[in-house]
Amino acid sequence: MADAGRRPEVARTGGRSPLLGLRIAVPRGALFRETLEVLDRLGVDTSEVRANDRKLLFEDVGIITMRPSDVPTYVEAGAADLGITGKDVLMEQAEREVYELHDLGYGLCKMVLATEEGEDKAAEALRRLGVMRVATKYKRVASEYFLRTGRQAEIVEVKGSVELAPLTGLVEAIVDLTATGTTLRENGLVIREEIATSTARLIANPVAHKLKAAAIDDLLGRLREG
Amino acid sequence: MILPTPSGTRDVLPDEMRELRAITEAIRGVFDQHGYGEIWTPALEYEEVLERADLGEGRAVYRMFDEHGKVLTLRWDMTVPIARVVATRYANAEPPLRFAYFAHAYRDVRPQRGLPREQFQAGIELVGSPAPEGTAEALTVLCRALDATGLRAYRIGLGSAALYPSLMEEAGVPEAARAGLLGELATRDFVGLRRRVGELDLPAAMADALVEVPQMRGGREILDRVGERGHVEMLRRLYDLLDEDVRARLIFDLGLVRQLGYYTGAVFEVYDPALGAPIGRGGRYDDLLGKFGRDLPAVGFALNVDRLHIALTGEERG
After folding, report:
1. The dihedral formed by the CA atoms of A94, A96, A101 and A104, expressed in degrees to the nearest 10
2. ipTM computed for the complex
3. Secondary structure (DSSP) of B180-205
4. Taking the domains of chain A in order of start, what are their residue ranges?
């Protein structure tokens, strides 16, 4: 990342492309398809991005693709002017210095506290042991939630399928993101509390937000119109 | 043996130091030429003294105890120590007073590119010169200093810390809701700002202004779009005082809020296309000196020398 902030201007697309020379970080994964549809509506040619899931940098159209949790990193450093990622990612990386410009509305999901069906083992652990163990990928969101609600929790950070953790006795509860609740149900977990809702957001680098204000506002205007 | 330094600190070796030195020497020449006298203050101060600045909650600092059990802190900027110097050593001196510094500041930040916990700053404080004249002088010295380093494409974002509070006053935002709106602005969350303003049940025109005005940035023409409301007139008068080359560097940014608790009026940040983060910032702090016992208006800025170096290198390669 030594060159993160550097802009190879020669390679940029200039002011006439649909993104007006801006570079946007696009999340692969759950938000990928709808993000490309948004870009299509802005007149960006995303056919190469759709056709090629190994290539990461599409300099001609101003798109770079990455996992959603990396989007704030690239945007904060200025390696991308704009980015699209979930509010869940932004909440978890609240220290990132980026502008949150627009709620794109899609990718709706909930951050929930879930435990196994039946008697609430987390509540029991809290009552009898004073602490509940909670597995999550969202360490900050979970910690702040339990702090806010006055409960002691031991946060266990996992990278993979969180649903496994309560089923094996690693923890009593999980904090995770769910869109339909299907995965939770299939693993015998029920939602006990809703912590937050999340949708896709458009974010901007703070310096690009000033130096490329006209291009960003133009794009934002077109996004708001639909 | 590999022995680490604390997180967010680093060594500077001769090759880099030569380049940093060239930058600071260029800046020092400009400060000197404009009558700013360089000073040193201790890196360690009594916490109870620096706390008079009332920086609000959450300022992360390094603290330790001296042999008498008094709490010491490493200075987190040079503005507050200089406020102390003015009140104690220049209690009767005729203003304006001009000070320059090249010094380390210490903050317990998340270390990131060009933002170590031990940060080398070059800056000035102009004490006893009110707005808009004092602000115009500070902006002019800032541009001359950046020009002297050879930085080419920089711009200065200029706003007012007083603007949004006066906008909230005018719109009749309840006292209890104001900190929340400022919080959304400070964390740059316009989605959250829109949601909070929407919850307030204000007339549509007022609600729109609260959401739209802080997103306005551009040339002098945006000031006219805001009309006569809140502190925009002061920005106009400031603009009128500036030389053409300084004006050409300005981007008015009505969403700039105070990053430090003590800013009262104009606030500004330095940007360069070669770096994704501000290179420096400054502003007016007309109430700070009074808290140290000498009530004088003041303005100043600090450049982050590491980031300036990164931007210069980026421009060179770009």
Report:
1. -60
2. 0.88
3. HHHHHHHTTBHHHHHHHHHTT---HH
4. 9-107+199-225, 109-197
Chain A: which residues have CB within 8 Å of chain B?
Answer: 1, 4-9, 76-79, 94-95, 97-103, 201, 205-211, 213-214, 217
The answer to whether the CB atoms of B218 and A5 lie below 8 A apart is no
Number of H helices, E strands in chain B: 13, 12
Phi, psi of A178 (to 5 degrees): -140, 140
Contact B276 A94 (CB under 8 A): no
Sorted by where each begins, the domain ranges of chain B are: 17-162+231-317
What residues contact residue B288 under an 8 Å CB cut-off, 6+ apart? B53, B79, B80, B83, B262, B298
Per-residue pLDDT tens listing for chain A (226 residues): 344 444 444 344 444 578 999 999 999 999 999 999 999 999 999 999 999 888 999 988 999 999 999 999 999 999 999 999 999 999 999 989 999 999 999 999 999 999 999 999 999 999 999 999 999 999 999 999 999 999 999 999 999 999 999 999 999 999 999 999 999 999 999 999 999 999 999 999 999 999 999 999 999 999 988 7
> pTM for the full model?
0.89
Nearest CA in chain B to A211: B273
Nearest to B318 among A6, A99, A102 (CB): A6
Please give the CATH topology (third level) of the domain spanning B17-162+231-317: BirA Bifunctional Protein; domain 2 (3.30.930)
Contact flag B318-A100 (C-beta cutoff 8 Å):
no
Look up the CATH number of domain A109-197: 3.40.190.10
Distance from CA of B32 to the nearest CA of A (A): 30
Indicate the residue of B112, B191, B272 with minimum beta-carbon distance to A201. Answer: B191
Give the separation between CA B278 and CA B307, rounded to whole angstroms: 8
Flag if B192 and A8 touch (Cβ within 8 Å). no
Superfamily of domain A9-107+199-225: Periplasmic binding protein-like II (3.40.190.10)
Q: Residue A155 and residue B193: Cα distance in Å, rounded?
A: 30
* B215: chain A residues, CB-CB within 8 Å: 217
User: In CATH terms, are A9-107+199-225 and A109-197 the same topology?
Assistant: yes
